């Protein structure tokens, strides 16, 4: 898979690429993302040195929840939305970004067919 820009559009393009894969391939990617979110993001998105450093400094709980949320989005083919609200100011470069994560996932299984339906959203919002 090719690297995408680390932008809302790049995240949508990456999800479209992953959604086109088989369930078996999406399962492998989802397991990798759940356990290695920083590595997955670094390998699949073009990051600045600042973004790379920021990701590596996230606490383990934040990393795991982020990884599990992204994995749910990829596996269940539910929308992953990245919201970047970075102001283009000199003041912003002195601060640290704050990441907010909102995940809503729902599954239902039809007992007659065994078919599972997954719905929901994953929203990652970056603010100063």
Helical content (DSSP H or I, runs of 4+)? 40-55%
Give the tally of β-strands: 5
Largest sheet: 3 strands, mixed
| Share in β-strands | 25-35%
* Overall pLDDT score: 83
Instruction: Please report the number of helical segments.
Output: 6
Structural class: alpha/beta
| N-to-C SSE string, H for helix and E for strand | EHHHEHHEHEE
Amino- and carboxy-terminal Cα gap:
31 Å
Radius of gyration: 16 Å
Low-confidence stretches are: none
Strand order of the largest sheet: 3-5-4
Note the topology.
Layout: E1 4-5, H1 8-19, H2 23-35, H3 37-44, E2 45-46, H4 49-56, H5 60-76, E3 80-84, H6 90-94, E4 98-109, E5 116-127
Parallel strand pairs: 1-2, 3-5
Antiparallel strand pairs: 4-5
Helix pairs in contact: 2-3, 2-5
Summarize the structure.
The chain contains 6 helices and 5 strands. The chain is of the alpha/beta class.
Describe this structure in words.
The strands form two sheets. Strands 3-5-4 form a three-stranded mixed sheet. Strands 1-2 form a two-stranded parallel sheet. The chain has 128 residues and is an alpha/beta fold. Helix 2 (23-35) packs across helix 3 (37-44) and helix 2 (23-35) runs antiparallel to helix 5 (60-76). It is built from six helices and five strands; from the N terminus they run E-H-H-H-E-H-H-E-H-E-E. The chain has helices spanning 8-19, 23-35, 37-44, 49-56, 60-76, 90-94, and strands at 4-5, 45-46, 80-84, 98-109, 116-127.
């Amino acid at each position: 898979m090719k690297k995408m820009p680390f932008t809302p559009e790049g995240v949508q393009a990456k999800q479209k690429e992953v959604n086109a894969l088989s369930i078996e391939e999406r399962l492998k990617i989802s397991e990798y993302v759940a356990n290695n979110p920083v590595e997955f993001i670094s390998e699949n998105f073009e990051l600045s040195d600042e973004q790379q450093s920021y990701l590596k400094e996230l606490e383990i709980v934040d990393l795991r929840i982020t990884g599990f949320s992204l994995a749910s989005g990829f596996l269940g083919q539910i929308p992953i939305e990245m919201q970047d609200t970075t102001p283009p100011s000199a003041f912003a470069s002195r601060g640290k970004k704050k990441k907010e994560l909102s995940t809503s996932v729902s599954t239902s299984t039809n007992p007659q067919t065994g078919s599972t339906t997954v719905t929901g959203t994953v929203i990652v919002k970056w603010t100063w």
